[in-house]
Amino acid sequence: MDSSGRQSPVSKDSPATAAKALLQSSFRCQRCCVRLNLDATLRGLDREAVQATINTFQSRSVAMHLTLAGTDGRNRRFDNDASEVSADPADDADTDHDDEEAALARLEAEEAELRAELESTGAELAEVRAEADAEEAKKSALTAEHQQLQHAYSELKRQLFLLDEELSATRNQQAYAESELNRLQNTSVLGAAFHIWYDAHIASIGGFRMGRPAGGQIDWAELNAGWGQCALLLQAVSHRLGFASTVYTVVPCASQSEMRLLATGRSLPLYSSHGRLFSDSAFDSGMSAYLSCVTELLAFVRDRYGKDRLAPYPLHPPKEIEDSGQRFAIVRAGNKDERWTMALRLMLLDIKMLQAWMSTEPELLQKKRQTSGLA
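^ that's the sequence the OP posted. Answer follows.
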């Protein structure tokens, strides 16, 4: 390469000449830097070694030649490009100045737009902050209201729990009251108050036996109490049905009950304290009056309520009751204790059937009483 920086032309000597010149040049040892005389060294080599060395140097020479040629071509292209770029520097400066002004104008316009957008964004930010503060205030108010409502809800929940317990208790009481009502509706008041039953040939009312079986095991105090129950039952049934006898009125008074004639006011007792040896005509008259009053009551039920054949045992006042073609007297005079006891039993069974019919027709009885003005 010369002083101008360009590559010097490659020598066109023959390879043999170049190799000889190379052999005559001196080299230094890489370890001790002592100059080496290759000419003297190569003299001692044989012909084949020298030829191999020459071939190696020829190959290196060709490679160096090709490398220098490529470098020279690249330098020429660089010089041409540089000359083209620096052909008109004034025009390049004007073009760069115009581009810079246009870019500056664009940047200023963009800056103005960004400033306007920044101002708008600042205003929006202020509005958003104001809305956020308002929402925070609403949140605080709603939180306080929520706590208040939560307390109110808890209180109402407690009251609801107490009311549920009270409602359950009330429903239980209602169920019990309904069951009792059904039981009472299906229960005959007269049947419960004046329970009529019989054991063997002896009938009883309210637990008091009526009659004098063989052996005389029933005293007169029990008989008198039983007749008092019969008198009270007749009065209750008559009042319930709206019946009033035209001949007698019953006066219940426990073991001192009696029948009374309406015409004369005479009292006919339904009690006695005498034994079989002493006849008591007043007591017989009272029992006959009672049987006549029951017969009149059954006729009233047949006419008013259309209930015929209510009594299973026909009554034949003033003193007889029929059963299977036989008649039994209700008086003691001239009568046996067994037949008198049977007559009392048949009379009580007729009254029991009347009592049972009244318990099964309460609405009919109420309607008839309202129609007749006896409610």
